[in-house]
Amino acid sequence: xxxxxxxxxxxxxxxxxxxxxxxxxxxxxxxxxxxxxxxxxxxxxxxxxxxxxxxxxxxxxxxxxxxxxxxxxxxxxxxxxxxxxxxxxxxxxxxxxxxxxxxxxxxxxxxxxxxxxxxxxxxxxxxxxxxxxxxxxxxxxxxxxxxxxxxxxxx
Length: 155
Known about the structure:
By secondary structure, the chain is mainly β. It contains one helix and ten strands. It is 12% helix and 45% strand.
């Protein structure tokens, strides 16, 4: 019985982990290939995750690039069909592309009830954020959101 209890506890805490990362109302809803820009003045643990929206099946994929456009990491199907990135980034500017599965960042695979929309969360904010500014612009094929994060060390 102790062995079964151990597995139950492990399963319980794993489910809490998944639920603790639930979607939030302020998270952006992705409906087309979308870019999010981040700028860091210190080393940062960047995290981004996609979430299924009830009634909308989705198979998202995320790509993280440096300022020169070099791919750092791309993730598809990390948590079921949802994507999750956790990577340490050095000071600099980065672009997160939110799209759909199958390794083509400029292609949106939607239709037949799939990939109409999904929710995206990202933290990527250094612990010592002193100011944040956000601006949004839209093109016909890609939405770009720029987030600038300025940090200062607290000594």
